[in-house]
Amino acid sequence: MRLILLGVLVLAVNFSLLAQEKGKTNKWFENIQIGGYMQIRYNGLFESNPNLECEQCDESWGHEGGGISFRRLRFTIKGQISPRVYFYFQPDFAKSIGGDHHVGQLKDAYLDVGLDKRNEFRVRIGQSKVPYGFENMQSSSNRLPLDRNDALNSAVKDERDLGVFFFWAPQEKRKLIKSLRKAGLSGGDFGLFALGFYNGQTANKLDENNEFHLVTRFSYPLKMGNQVIEPGIQAYTGRYVVTNHSPEIQVNESGYLDQRTALSFVLYPQPFGIQAEYNLGRGPEFDKASNSIQVNHLEGGYATFSYFFEKWNQQFYPFVRLQYYDGGKKHELDARSYTVKDTEIGIECHPLPHFEFLVEYTFLDRRYEDFQNPINHQIGSLMRIQAQLKF
Fold it and tell me: Is the pTM above the cut of 0.85?
């Protein structure tokens, strides 16, 4: 009888402990995390050509009286609020609209819905990064060069759009991606395979032709000893409506053919790193011979070589990037025509936790022409400095 009573008592204690464990389950708001980063820049050192600008790079670059500026001022609110529902929200307060500066603007607002218990299959709904190009999808807080490359970034301004995207990755690969993120080497989990549709007019823009862009991507991170490599391939297609154009230019209101394909290769810097991508396709581009916007061939890419070492209890990342692009930039005035040949040499230093300092010297050779400025070829160089707080 005593043994029976003892057994009942043990079972009662076990059930009580299980009930307590269930009671300890976090509320949804206890799973929310807050983070962000701030970038402060100065682009005016040793500037050899004040007429040389880069619209998609930095608003204060090349503008008279640019001075010290905020490049990014972002806060993130995110959380796995239930086992199969994740949300992410990020505004930016470093934008300029007309004569107003430091204006708040939406960057990301999306939710991920897991289609299985392990969340190996997910659907992302909202405004988020379009899965095209490795560097496009990485956070600017992790990238070594100060700005994204022209060749692939010209595909999706601000890297984002409103859409619905399906992602797949097995649990083992998601753990590898997570470990790369924790090491500061990668900035996002976009699965191994992605397929989706989006408006096609870029972030914070309404759809103009009632036609979606389609995009797909496949990459495969692979661990080889202490190194990790990640080859990838991606493509998209759609029709883009040019809304930013001179009054003298007539545009096709149904849009222009806009399609690309790209190859990516990444060797994560442990300690030597390589990041290279190349894309080609067709898209709208200003044609000065006819003073019109035509669908033309485009192509270009970049290669970044980096190295990681520690000295004096600090981390250093010296790097060199070469980039080339020949084609139009659909989101700029008159789908501005470009030929870009740039070289960047820099070093990023992490002297303190949460604080990074970067110095970069850039050599530029750029032709960028539109209806207002049909003959424009600028060559120059400058030193750029950035301080970053990341938390």
Answer: yes
